[in-house]
Amino acid sequence: MFNISVSHISIYRWIRHFSSFFKTVSEFLIQKANLQYDEWHADETYIKIKGIRHYLWILLDSKTRVVIAFYLYDLRNSSSAYKLFQKSLNNTNSESSDIVTDYLSAYNMPISMAYPNIKYYTYSSFSDNLNNNFIESFNKTFKAWYKTKKGFHSFSSALDLISNFIFYYNFIHKHSSLSNLTPANVAGVTYSDRELKNWFLF
User: pTM, whole model, 2 decimals?
Assistant: First the structure.
């Protein structure tokens, strides 16, 4: 109607510029989420920044599909896993009954240190009753989005773009598997359409 054309560079700059604002909103709303459910799932997937492999560590609640915390680093070790759980401790006071991961040994000590009262399970195949299907579904969605980026040019831009992707996933995108609600809505976080629009008019 207005015959306005917006380049992808303009959109990229807009996302980078407002990433800190959306991070603040996300941290505020996650504190309100009820994540006191049976299982949290942790996993890591890789991306490339300037051609170098980095790992995106994710902690997700199985009931609501909320991404509780994420951590991006170039190492796949216990220190990186512990950073993920440190972030989750900062993001929410909730605790699940169980944490489920694959067989990566890097999770063992960080989980016992961060969540000593939570039962920790590893799965050996996707047919196990306790498996990581929920977070693998998230990884599939993330990878489809990541593929369009063809890698990232800097760590800071990767962090900003991934942060905004997770904000969209948690608070904006309505999931058919969640009765057309957002993960945050399922976790009891409420916000009006007006508030939603105001986030993008900030």
Answer: 0.85
